[in-house]
């Protein structure tokens, strides 16, 4: 192997010895050679002990670790990692079942492939690179996907135009690496939905809310449901299957509302219980009455960087305060944060502050997180990004 060598400062190897998969630029003493962003590098301690192999990148995180053993990052490596991830999804009964053909196959650090996301929608794999190294390896990864999943995959769509570092000066490449004639209808827990992986947010659908949607279905019977920030309507059609009396879906994007209506129609054709509104969330909440007794607040990430954390927490407080004020007595509130920089404690504090402001008696029914196909590497607790509370409001 002829990888570049990254030498760490004395005593900066301690996090690597605990298998944390990031190396920060401030920990580096010197680099042998001049690696380009995305190159594979070997990392050594100051006393020249091998520590890890990973992708080099420019920025605060200088190396994302691929392996803590000295191996070649070749076709066999990609195939072994994808096989391990697929085996786990089979064990979870997410892959290979008649009721569900939608799941996350690769979840970055959680599957020991930092910088890589792969979601499966029926016969289509949607791949997203969050690092230049994964971008460069996309064709190898696609080959490994086909080797592991075989005929179950007819299409591989690469979508990294919004996730790659903008300073890398890469072409915003998006398109099929394999196949191209794809049915955009997928199945989750027996419910159908359209996926817009070409122009939709993330990979086209928020797979991480699957278990929480199922929980909402359990509580929906006979209730009047408001699904705020509905995107493509996932919580809405679960609520309808759960026997909701009415379901209102709200999103500021008219495209999202169009997809929501399509998805509801796929499962409940011409069902009068559902209405959808393209409107700003705060405006809708301010003007709505007290007609709802089950509200879902699943906003986009209010904070993607720590320097906007304070504003984000104020946003969560304001949003939840309106919901506490308007929800009917005996109502149930599902409230979430998907911001990685917002800790579980900070999110709870924001929601608790909103509850206190309302003066209502509020009890926690469930504390929610991301599902098992979005695993958290035990050595990388930063991977736990989705926080949720289910609250009973008297």
Short description:
With 394 residues, this protein is of the alpha/beta class. The chain contains 10 helices and 20 strands. The mean pLDDT is 93.
Work out the strand percent: 25-35%
Instruction: Count all strands and give the number.
Output: 20
Approximate helicity band: 25-40%
CATH C-level class of the largest domain: Alpha Beta
List unreliable stretches of 5+ residues: none
Number of helical runs? 10
Number of domains: 3
Structure description:
The structure is a single chain. The protein has a seven-stranded mixed beta sheet, with helices on both faces. The longest helix has 18 residues, at 309-326. It has helices at residues 14-17, 75-91, 132-136, 138-149, 210-219, 234-241, 254-267, 281-287, 309-326, 344-358; strands spanning 4-8, 22-24, 28-32, 40-44, 50-56, 61-67, 102-107, 116-121, 124-129, 155-159, 174-178, 185-188, 191-194, 224-228, 246-251, 274-278, 294-297, 331-337, 362-368, 387-393. The chain is of the alpha/beta class. The chain contains ten helices and 20 strands. It folds into three domains: 4-67, Roll (Archaeosine Trna-guanine Transglycosylase, Chain: A, domain 4); 75-188, Transcription Regulator spoIIAA (2-Layer Sandwich); 206-393, Rossmann fold (3-Layer(aba) Sandwich), CATH 3.40.50. Helices cover 28% and strands 28% of the residues.
